[in-house]
Amino acid sequence: MMRFGSIFVSTLFLSIHYGAILYVNSSLLGSFFELNVVSMLFLAGAVGNIILFLFAPQLIEMFGKRLLLLILLCLSLLSTLGLAFASTVSVIVFSFLAYSSFIFVIYYYLDIVLEELSTDTKTGEIRGIYLTIINIGIALGPLVTATLVEGPTLRPIYIAAALLLLPSILLALLSFKSKTPKWHGLHRYHSLLPFNLWWRTKGLRHATLAKLVLESFFGLMIIYVPVYLHSVIGFEWETLGIMFFIMLLPFVIFQWPVGELADRFIGEKELMIIGFLIMGAATFSMPYLGPVVILWTAILFLSRVGASLIEVTTESYFFKHVRAEDTRLISIFRLARPAGFIVGAVVGSLTLNLFSFEKIFFVLVVIIFFGLRESLSIRDTR
């Protein structure tokens, strides 16, 4: 496990950085723009991320993974500082779009480096540790928010988030010395992603679409719930930081044991269905909650219990049905995250133009229903 140390440490700091600003971005943008414009900016950032994903094979061939990772980390640091000190519309737009385009691709390259170092007999264990480290980091991020927020200004949070990228940059500069083995076949002869093959392979399609619904849930929650809780319900950021930390704990607590449960006893299908039912029920109750911190914290926690079940079971199911060299299919699966942000931004913007703010939760329940349908269509592994 020692050879994974630099990747795990880099991932931890990157995830704390990401978690620190994840739920404040929409409020920062909201201080410059109307909420509809905020939605469009999230959409544009996700589109930029998808474009980088589609060109990732060519970029790897041109620059190599280590140099490309270093470049993206440095650009992310600069764009985070841009968000910290932005005082004009042009700077805030440029910084946010740049940051949104880079962040998920950084995780993608770390994913590839980890895969190169992994052996088939240890893949499940290593992936479990890696996912747990990501979730611990993201869960710790809101504590940074709660600790550093100073009244209405969010600048200290973004400065701290930028500094949190420095260990990842140093490790990318000094420790990452991976190379592309021949067996990996990293896109050298395949510049296009095999969407036709993916669509014909029903198990992979259902798992990816279930993942897309989950990422759409995350997108809507990340963009709109902080604004709703801060501006409509009236919670302060010191309170929201603690609430979001507790909300994210299920991803740390449940994913590893749930993965073991799916491997040994139940299988992914049943746990995925349970996850969608829990997440849907919790989301349906949100419009009826008043300004009660404990109640909101409990419901948000419950919604993430469901989300954590879905995340680990979709990951487990998908990777049980692909091989290490199927990197192009894995790329399609990873596209679900930025695509989910696009769905969340579009659906949220349309909903707010037609209905009152709290109706967005009912629309989200409808989206969750489609994920439940996909999970029911999966052929179980046990």
Account of the 3D structure:
- With 382 residues, the chain is an all-alpha fold.
- The protein folds into two domains: 1-177, MFS general substrate transporter like domains (Growth Hormone, Chain: A, Up-down Bundle), CATH 1.20.1250.20; 193-382, MFS general substrate transporter like domains (Growth Hormone, Chain: A), CATH 1.20.1250.
- The protein contains 18 helices and no strands.
- It has helices spanning 5-22, 25-30, 35-54, 56-63, 65-85, 89-117, 123-148, 155-163, 166-174, 195-200, 202-233, 237-253, 255-264, 268-285, 293-320, 327-334, 336-354, 360-377.
- Helix 12 runs parallel beside helix 15.
- The protein is globular and about 50 Å long.
- 46% of the residues are buried.
- Mean pLDDT is 86; it is low at 180-189.
- This is Major facilitator superfamily (MFS) profile domain-containing protein.
- Keywords: Membrane, Transmembrane, Transmembrane helix.
- Residues 3-382 form the Major facilitator superfamily (MFS) profile domain.
Write a concise synopsis of the structure shown.
79% of the residues lie in helices and 0% in strands. The protein has 382 residues and is an all-alpha fold. The protein folds into two domains: 1-177, Up-down Bundle (Growth Hormone, Chain: A), CATH 1.20.1250; 193-382, Growth Hormone, Chain: A (Up-down Bundle), CATH 1.20.1250.20.
